[in-house]
Amino acid sequence: MPLLPTILEQNLLDQWLAADSHPSTPAESGQRFASAVSQWFALAMAGPFPCATAIARQGQLAGQATSALTSGLPPAAGSQLAMAVASYYSGQVFGAGTASFPTAAAAVAIAFGAVFADLQSSSEERAERLAAGCTLLALSTLVVFPPPMPAMPVF
Question: How confident is the model at residue 13 (pLDDT cuts 50, 70, 90)?
């Protein structure tokens, strides 16, 4: 199944940006974000191979997301959150292949900073923009396999 940004958008709304249950601490917020992203990324494929490590590495993303969410300044929070997601994707295992670092990380860092700086946007708009950034990161990730298999994109 290909990674659909609408699925991640809904995960973010339900688990992280829910209007009726805001996280009470940065750690809880980071954990909820990581849960939404890792559940979605568990659906990722590289060729015929599913991602085998998405859920197992959720804690890594939660810790880095917590740090990003406590930075205080929108550009810093956005940049750190984008790098947290990019680092989480990097090293994921797909069969015998390993994911490289996403090439779109710098662009997504700027985009995430803009999401945090836009205080007028709704939770739905934030979730849509963050999901689009996470999807772009995934699509700019190559999975490298041992020879003779070629590298394959994440989809």
Answer: very high
